[in-house]
Amino acid sequence: MSEHAHEPGPNQIKRQRLTTVTVERPRCPACGGVKLRKYRTLADQGDGSALWWVQCECGRRFRVLLE
User: Fold this and answer.
1) Domain that holds residue 56
2) Closest Cα to residue 28, out of 55, 67, 65, 66?
3) 41 found inside a domain
4) Does residue 15 lie within any of the structural domains?
5) Is residue 57 included in any domain, yes or no?
6) What angle do CA 26, 56, 61 make, to 5 degrees?
7) Torsions phi, psi of 63, nearest 5?
8) How many domains in the chain?
9) pTM > 0.85
10) Can you tell me the distance from the alpha carbon of 47 to that of 30, in angstroms, rounded to the nearest whole number?
């Protein structure tokens, strides 16, 4: 019997496990609410980040920095 090189089938491909990164939605520092209304945005600050000025349903205004 001759030996043949065996290539892995589609179900046998070794795959690298990917790391999971979780991102939470911004919450109001006063009440913890997530219903926020943006009233101003700096979409790109030159480094890929964005800055939002938001107002929560409770009336609290604050900034959200997305990096």
Assistant:
1) 36-66
2) 55
3) yes
4) no
5) yes
6) 95
7) -105, 150
8) 1
9) no
10) 29
